[in-house]
Amino acid sequence: MCQRRQRASYAEFPSCDLPPLETANWLRKPAALVRGTWPDARAAARWLGDRLTEYAPRFAAPDHRVAGHLSALIASAEARLRRGGDVSLGYYLERPTFLSLALVACSPNDGDRASPCPMS
User: What is the pTM of this model?
Assistant: First the structure.
């Protein structure tokens, strides 16, 4: 039974919008699941900052709402993307909801050099 579930999950992986276990595997998803592309790390980090600001009032942990914490995350994300790394963040929100945000570096990606960018 476990093997059947595992095979089914592998078959569903490309079209499912659930986050992959490895952030770089977003590159293996269809382009339709891409929420945006940006010409540089700064623009991508700005998008991340906008999402964090949008959801921060709903973060379950009050410490995650602090502006300094969010600014540090944005700066760290930009630096990581500049080096070809990925960014993956997750937050529990008030109510039983989980927010998952990922930025995946393309051309090349340190975690998956073989996969092309989905939007290219």
Answer: 0.79
**In this predicted model, what pLDDT tens digit does every residue of 22-79 receive, in sequence order?**
888 787 777 788 888 888 999 999 999 999 999 999 999 999 999 999 999 999 999 9
65 CB burial (10 A radius; 0-12, 13-18, 19+): middle
CA 115 to chain centroid: 16
| DSSP structural state of residue 13 | T
| Residue that has been written with the tokens 């500049």 in this structure | 82
Distances (CA, A) of 82 to 13, 17, 38, 53: 28, 25, 12, 22
Amino acid at 97: T
Structure tokens belonging to residue 10: 């592998």
